[in-house]
Amino acid sequence: MAFSRLALCGTSLLRFLAVSPLTTSAAICLARPPFPTRSFVIHACLSIQTSTPVESPYLKKMNPWKPMCLYYTQGKCTKMDDPIHLDKFSHNCSWELETSFAESKHLCSQNLDFLLVLDLEGKVEVLEFPVLMVDANTMQVVDFFHRFVRPSKMSEQRLNEYVEGKYGKLGVDRVWHDTAIPFKQVLEEFEAWMAHHRLWGNEFPGALNRAAFVTCGNWDIKTKVPQQCKVSGMKLPSYFMEWINLKDVYLNFYKRRATGMATMLKELDLPLLGTHHLGIDDAKNIAKVLQRMLADGALMQITARRIPNDPQSVEFLFENRIR
Ligand SMILES: [Zn+2]
């Protein structure tokens, strides 16, 4: 039964693909549950399997979720004046992360103003670079930066297999191919974005200004960023000298170990947003954990720092940490 529904769903998707250039986001609609229950995937499919794509007001009311426009998240959506497009795809990256003051009665005074949640995707070379900027004092998502990244040292065939293997099953390979840019260009654009927010730049060279990266584990900044910089023929930028590993803060604050994002979400009774392993969604989920920890009264502190004269070496600042 489930198979036939999904098959119908695929047929109507093909019809949709024939008239819309936004094929990948449409596919996310199929791949991404609006809530963490699988049954909603089927409902979402059923809602578009009819020949006339009329939206049920009931479903619309029950399910405000729409697939995110991944052109928009990268500042590349050209259909912002198209009501049909706006109706089909979400153009608000942070509505799922809105918090209320009622949740923040234990919020403590932070030493940092902004927390930049970063979650890289891509094991061989980086494929996605998403950052959510969270105000440490209000817990609100202030802005975000998202780019798909084009590997620089890969044959076309290997690249296609790599992207298909990573994003094909999530239905976002088309948007990846449409938008991915080299890592060097991603960092240049990211630096302009940080300068705009006065987080880094000519005024504030060196480390981030009253801000810090927040990652789930040490891999992203300790391992992957330097590796990718080397592959891309770049010097490691100064803003990647220190970071907060949320798992270490979690261990010291709640006095229990969490092996990863999914464990932290589960233990804090938070639903998984979007699709696991789509970087922008993983960053949202890590931000959700961060918001809860801030609301519970956790102090966000740097957990790891490179030795200035020996950037290959990293000093871990918490005695009690995840190894
Ligand atoms: Zn759009």
Walkthrough of the structure:
With 323 residues, the chain is α/β, with parallel strands linked by helices. It folds into two domains: 2-65, no CATH class; 98-154 and 180-316, 2-Layer Sandwich (Nucleotidyltransferase, domain 5), CATH 3.30.420. It is 39% helix and 14% strand. It is built from twelve helices and eight strands. The protein has helices spanning 2-19, 23-31, 39-46, 57-62, 83-88, 156-168, 173-179, 183-196, 219-231, 246-254, 261-267, 279-295, and strands at 114-118, 128-135, 141-150, 181-182, 211-215, 242-245, 304-307, 310-316. An eight-stranded mixed β-sheet has the order 4-3-2-1-5-6-7-8. A hairpin with a 2-residue loop joins strand 7 and strand 8 (310-316). Helix 6 crosses helix 7 (173-179). It is globular. The chain starts with a helix and ends in a 7-residue tail after the last strand. Residues 1-61 have low confidence and may be disordered. Residues 69, 71-72, 77, 79, 85, 89, 91 line the site of zinc ion.
Topology:
Blueprint: H1 2-19, H2 23-31, H3 39-46, H4 57-62, H5 83-88, E1 114-118, E2 128-135, E3 141-150, H6 156-168, H7 173-179, E4 181-182, H8 183-196, E5 211-215, H9 219-231, E6 242-245, H10 246-254, H11 261-267, H12 279-295, E7 304-307, E8 310-316
Parallel strand pairs: 1-5, 3-4, 5-6
Antiparallel strand pairs: 1-2, 2-3, 6-7, 7-8
Helix pairs in contact: 1-2, 6-7
The chain binds zinc ion.
Domain Exonuclease: 114-299
Pfam family, one: RNase_T
GO molecular function: 3'-5'-RNA exonuclease activity; nucleic acid binding
